[in-house]
């Protein structure tokens, strides 16, 4: 099923801000040796919104993010910042966590962050102070003087995130920032990212951890085979799929098969999962259900994992 949903004005996590900047991919495509791996991809990352970028291995997420950041040239299409063509100066103000990471393994953690902060125009003092604060938030204050390569991979990852956040970026583009992090580190990172969105920063991150994406994201972009299959809030994507209800009675629910306007997805003894054609079908169903000892009738709110499977099927 292919679903295209335009993000609405409000979300379960609050109204989007209108005072920040908008990052936009417009018709981005990229081919390698004649093979198109990103094909006419368009989406926006709104100010103050956390946008999750999901899709199977090889769907084209990293390639798209590289084009957004200008480290890879697009075969066609544009990247816009506040509705105009993005510039190198705009991008220099972004925080980017590339898939290939790219800090210096032999350099000390704090020194390295201080150096990166200076590259972004911070004073040495401010860069070191902010780096120390971020390391503290990630529980790495005691490792500040250690060489990066002496840290575990998960801890190196936290330093990478700190590097992306250090200079107060105007937008964040993060390629799988959560992979390999323990649950406490995930929580610390969620909190840090939420602080940024609360200030109006647009955040785009890719992830294969759908439960996390569900918990964190205001908006989702689902990529498959280099194309956008669906985009919208998690609630909009849920609503775009079939609406299902769970019925539970005291007696066997096999009778539901004979109720006009009711499509049976599954019947298992006293429980059934159903799709209803209209309100009349619902009324007919409930009338019968009461006679069979109705215990529960409720709409099923699908997990994002189920929605994802549905749209990529
Ligand atoms: N430099 C390159 N040269 C040739 N093919 C490439 C290059 N970079 C990416 N590809 C191909 O483009 C496709 C998309 O890759 P990409 O890394 O963007 O996917 P992804 O969605 O980020 O995957 P994953 O979830 O595994 O990281 C893949 O088939 C990949 O092999």
From TrEMBL:
Which stretches does the entry tag as region Disordered? 1-20
**Entry keyword set:** ATP-binding, Nucleotide-binding, Transport
Gene Ontology molecular-function annotations: ATP binding; ATP hydrolysis activity
Name the Pfam families on file: ABC_tran, DrrA1-3_C
Record-annotated ABC transporter domain positions: 23-250
Keyword flag ATP-binding: yes
Under SMART domains, the record lists:
AAA
Amino-acid biosynthesis as a keyword?
no
- Family per record: Belongs to the ABC transporter superfamily.
What is the protein named? ABC transporter ATP-binding protein
